[in-house]
């Protein structure tokens, strides 16, 4: 009969001994002191209860229910992988070897090899024969069996009962224990070695897990962790969300994480006097003077820790405990769910999650949808991050909500569709309430399908789960995506039906408002383009600002169905003409679903232009414009999105489009050239303000009002408009000019840089913290234009240099002071090694210090002449690559504790020798320039 060794097991509630209990079958265990009981779960003893913070992990466990008994990891599989990885490591032609790897292994082969190489390196001088070994986060037992092949007496700890069940079944020679890494159920000093392979980044408390793993080590025992991603210590959660937004595993519930660098080292730093620490990276992004490092490299934690804390990559550690761990074991006092009870819910993933719903912490219930931030919890429930100004949200395979049933509402209603890009292969969406299917809705792109869930069966005040599951779909994030919007609680089906009728209106009229002034040939051409549009309900309004070339009469004669508006008195500019057209639409439109299309006459556009804009506006609930390209060269993008940087008061324009990009949804403004605005938005914010801005900036001012009111602005790349850029008004220039030309640039109504227009625009829309600064900059620009760009510059330029000279000198002095302060800090941190980093030496003393003290660059043959191996020195951190990879530089000049210190000392002297250093430096510089040119 199988018996379980309790000699090293502790009670996680009080830290006392555990003894068998019950009927003698070794299925129940009890604490000898506090009488807390534990039991086997799916055959594996489980010590501890799940806490509220573990609910993200419980969602991951639920995601694996469908794979139960089908995980496919057995001893033969592990041993086959071991043989294959060893053969690859010893192969002389690795590229040829990779081509022969079986297809079912090829996609993960290099990842497996990365893990294998890290473990092999970190155990290079350790024999596990006879060692008592703990594998934390053992999963299905892959690494546990690998450790047993090395001779270890292995205990495998696993958080998920499903994975532990499979591990026990396939690897019965390993002792399996269920429990938690942040509160290990083992006594102090129980193991000779602890391993944690690619598991720390799954754990909710990395510092606590490292603390506990060191606690259970015996003196002189070793902790080895491998293959964990890390991010800069000062970063927030947004970076993690951005990385996982397209990760299928995370969106299906796998609780991946990217801990901060500080999470890995905080415990080590607290007990540094009793620890020997080796820190290695397998990937390090943006390493100083090297760039991305993709080979295993060891670092000095004291010296390199501050640098690593600012970067990201993958980390591995080997930590030797020199003495008994001095701190008490962590205890568990706030469990909310036993593993046995959770396993009883696992008839399906949906059922397990529905049972979790009432236990959800308040912070996870009734999250706003679509929301504007996103969270790790929502990613694990299938929802990709919300996009700025987007009123819909994309789900991968399934999306899940947890909501509290309000007493006054009985239906949860929402709309379903597919992404506009057409890549999704989802055929329908099944709706599940608390684990039971309640409806299925066919979906397709470009149409919203109204859906509803009757929640009257859920008691008022209870938390419910609603799951939307894709039917059909491919394997990629794009192929299995569907979109949801407009989630709301309503009282009954009559309210739902009324909303459906309102949203299904397909006869919205588009009023194309075209402001014109003379240029009859452009107006005729524009009308013809509009008449060729595939979108049916389209009315053309020519808003004439006072043309003198017969435009009004000719257009009325040639196009009798076109409305021509004329000013009542004075000549109108762009703003007045558009405002006149919009006023007409506001008076004559009979539907809240109509649109206004602002369209300049000097443009060309395809027949589906209006249809695409309406389609995009309806899908994204936004005011939209099309991609603007040059009429003379359609490959030249003039405007793919416009932005305002208030800090510098610059108007930047996006000029490139990423592959597959179809919609840009974060623009700040749209141009008046070819933009479509839902009429309800105009009614909410008002018309174009022609009184404040008669010509330029009026469109920007209008769209700023839209955005400030919470409306979304975007640009679709699925259609484009061709613009005659040469017809633009007065464009700002640089260089010297006449007084008259500068006057027109600064004050003409046709000038894009009109001082008065910008002053008024800033007064209305600039954030408070920037407004006065921008005003000062505007005045400064006018003064500079008239004094430094006109003939007056011959008088003002010398005066300007004379007046600013003290500030220029002061700036140089301050700059040098900062440089020397940084240099002093580097000396305190690195000591004499600072000379190995010439960039840290202030520029005014860099050359003499370099010639007198610093080691120069070396080539591989220089290193090998002293009996040293460059790659080995790189891995140990003694050398680093320079910008030219055939050249190397020393990272340190202190080799006192190093093996082969005599040879290293000779290498240091050779690198320092001023006689040869100058020639090598010149050769390195020329090689670096050649490399740059080649790139």
UniProtKB/TrEMBL annotation:
<dbReference type="InterPro" id="IPR029063">
    <property type="entry name" value="SAM-dependent_MTases_sf"/>
</dbReference>
<dbReference type="GO" id="GO:0008757">
    <property type="term" value="F:S-adenosylmethionine-dependent methyltransferase activity"/>
</dbReference>
<dbReference type="InterPro" id="IPR029044">
    <property type="entry name" value="Nucleotide-diphossugar_trans"/>
</dbReference>
<keyword id="KW-1133">Transmembrane helix</keyword>
<comment type="similarity">
    <text>Belongs to the glycosyltransferase 2 family.</text>
</comment>
<dbReference type="GO" id="GO:0016757">
    <property type="term" value="F:glycosyltransferase activity"/>
</dbReference>
<dbReference type="InterPro" id="IPR013216">
    <property type="entry name" value="Methyltransf_11"/>
</dbReference>
<keyword id="KW-0812">Transmembrane</keyword>
<keyword id="KW-0472">Membrane</keyword>
<feature type="domain" description="Methyltransferase type 11">
    <location>
        <begin position="134"/>
        <end position="224"/>
    </location>
</feature>
<feature type="transmembrane region" description="Helical">
    <location>
        <begin position="794"/>
        <end position="813"/>
    </location>
</feature>
<keyword id="KW-0328">Glycosyltransferase</keyword>
<protein>
    <submittedName>
        <fullName>Glycosyl/methyltransferase hybrid protein</fullName>
    </submittedName>
</protein>
<dbReference type="Pfam" id="PF08241">
    <property type="entry name" value="Methyltransf_11"/>
</dbReference>
<keyword id="KW-0808">Transferase</keyword>
<feature type="domain" description="Glycosyltransferase 2-like">
    <location>
        <begin position="512"/>
        <end position="638"/>
    </location>
</feature>
<dbReference type="InterPro" id="IPR001173">
    <property type="entry name" value="Glyco_trans_2-like"/>
</dbReference>
<dbReference type="Pfam" id="PF00535">
    <property type="entry name" value="Glycos_transf_2"/>
</dbReference>
């Amino acid at each position: 009969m199988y018996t379980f060794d309790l000699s090293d097991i502790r009670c996680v509630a009080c830290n006392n001994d555990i003894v068998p209990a019950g009927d003698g079958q070794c299925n129940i265990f009890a604490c000898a002191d506090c009488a807390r009981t534990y039991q086997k779960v799916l055959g594996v003893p489980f010590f501890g209860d799940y806490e509220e913070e573990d609910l993200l992990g419980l969602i991951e466990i639920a995601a694996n229910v469908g794979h139960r008994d089908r995980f496919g990891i057995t001893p033969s599989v592990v041993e086959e992988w071991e043989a294959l990885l060893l053969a690859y490591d010893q192969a002389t032609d690795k590229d040829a070897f990779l081509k022969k790897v079986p297809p079912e292994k090829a996609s993960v082969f290099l990842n497996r090899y990365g893990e294998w190489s890290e473990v092999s390196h970190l155990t290079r001088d350790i024999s596990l024969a006879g060692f008592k070994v703990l594998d934390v986060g053992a999963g299905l037992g892959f690494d546990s069996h690998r450790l047993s092949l090395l001779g270890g007496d292995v205990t495998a700890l696993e958080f998920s009962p499903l994975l532990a069940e499979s591990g026990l079944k396939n690897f019965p020679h390993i002792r399996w224990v269920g429990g938690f890494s942040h509160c290990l159920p083992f006594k102090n000093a129980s193991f000779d070695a602890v391993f944690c392979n690619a598991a720390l980044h799954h754990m909710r408390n990395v510092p606590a897990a490292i603390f506990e793993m060191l606690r259970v080590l015996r003196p002189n025992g070793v902790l080895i962790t491998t293959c964990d991603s890390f991010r800069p210590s000062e970063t927030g959660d947004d970076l993690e969300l951005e990385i996982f937004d397209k990760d299928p595993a995370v969106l299906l519930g796998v609780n991946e994480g990217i801990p901060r660098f500080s999470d890995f080292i905080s415990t080590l730093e607290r007990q540094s006097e009793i620890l020997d620490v080796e820190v290695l990276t397998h990937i390090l992004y943006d390493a100083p003077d090297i760039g991305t490092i993709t080979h295993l490299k060891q670092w000095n934690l004291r010296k390199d820790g501050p640098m690593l804390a600012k970067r990201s990559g993958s980390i591995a550690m080997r930590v030797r405990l020199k003495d008994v761990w001095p701190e008490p074991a962590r205890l568990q006092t706030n469990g909310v769910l036993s593993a046995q009870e959770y396993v009883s819910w696992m008839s399906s993933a949906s059922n397990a999650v529905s049972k979790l719903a009432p236990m959800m912490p308040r912070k996870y219930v009734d999250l706003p949808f679509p929301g504007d931030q996103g969270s790790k919890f929502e990613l694990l429930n299938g929802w990709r991050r919300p996009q700025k100004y987007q009123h819909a949200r994309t789900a991968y395979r399934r999306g899940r909500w947890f909501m509290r049933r309000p007493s006054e509402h009985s239906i949860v209603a929402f709309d379903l569709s597919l992404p506009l890009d057409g890549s999704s292969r989802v055929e329908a969406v099944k709706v599940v309430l608390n684990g039971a299917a309640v409806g299925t809705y066919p979906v397709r792109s470009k149409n919203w399908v109204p859906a509803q869930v009757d929640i009257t069966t859920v008691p008022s005040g209870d938390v419910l789960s609603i799951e939307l599951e894709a039917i059909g779909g491919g394997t990629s994030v794009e192929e299995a995506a569907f979109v949801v919007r407009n989630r709301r609680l309503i009282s009954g089906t009559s309210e739902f039906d009324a909303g459906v009728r309102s949203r299904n209106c397909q006869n919205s009229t588009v009023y194309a408002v075209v402001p014109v002034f003379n240029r009859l040939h452009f107006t005729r051409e524009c009308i013809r383009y509009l008449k060729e549009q595939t979108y049916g309900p389209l009315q053309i309004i020519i808003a004439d600002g006072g043309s003198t070339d017969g435009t009004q009469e000719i257009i009325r004669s040639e196009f009798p169905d076109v409305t021509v508006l004329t000013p009542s008195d004075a000549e109108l500019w762009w703003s007045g003409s558009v405002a006149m057209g919009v006023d007409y639409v506001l008076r004559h439109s009979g539907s809240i679903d109509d649109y206004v299309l602002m369209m300049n006459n000097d443009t060309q556009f395809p027949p589906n232009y209006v249809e695409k804009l309406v389609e995009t506006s309806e899908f994204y609930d936004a005011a939209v414009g099309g991609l603007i390209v040059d009429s003379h060269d359609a490959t030249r993008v003039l405007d793919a999105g416009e932005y305002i940087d208030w800090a510098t008061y610059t108007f930047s324009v996006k000029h490139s489009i990423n592959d597959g990009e179809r919609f840009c949804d974060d623009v700040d403004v749209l141009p008046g050239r070819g933009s479509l605005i839902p009429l309800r938005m105009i009614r909410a914010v008002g018309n174009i303000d022609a009184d404040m801005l008669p010509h330029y900036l009026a469109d920007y001012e209008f769209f700023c009002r839209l955005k400030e009111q919470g409306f979304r602005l975007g640009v679709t790349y699925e259609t484009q408009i061709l613009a005659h850029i040469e017809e633009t008004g007065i464009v700002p220039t640089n260089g010297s000019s006449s007084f008259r030309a500068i006057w027109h640039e600064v004050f003409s109504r046709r000038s894009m840089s009109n001082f008065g227009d910008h002053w008024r625009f800033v007064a209305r829309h600039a954030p408070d913290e920037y407004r006065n600064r921008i005003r000062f900059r505007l005045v400064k620009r006018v003064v500079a234009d008239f004094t430094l760009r006109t003939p007056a510059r011959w008088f003002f330029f010398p005066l300007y240099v004379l007046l600013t000279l003290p500030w220029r000198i002061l700036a140089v002095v301050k700059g040098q002071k900062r440089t020397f302060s940084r240099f002093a800090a580097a000396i305190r941190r690195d000591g004499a090694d600072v000379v190995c980093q010439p960039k840290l030496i202030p520029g005014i003393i860099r050359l003499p210090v370099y010639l007198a003290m610093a080691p120069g660059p070396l080539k591989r043959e220089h290193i090998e002449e002293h009996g040293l191996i460059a790659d080995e020195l790189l891995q140990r951190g003694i050398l680093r690559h320079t910008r030219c990879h055939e050249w190397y530089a020393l990272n340190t000049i202190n080799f006192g504790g190093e093996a082969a210190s005599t040879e290293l000392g000779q290498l240091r002297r050779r690198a320092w020798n001023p006689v040869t250093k100058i020639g090598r430096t010149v050769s390195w510089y020329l090689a670096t320039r050649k490399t740059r040119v080649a790139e």
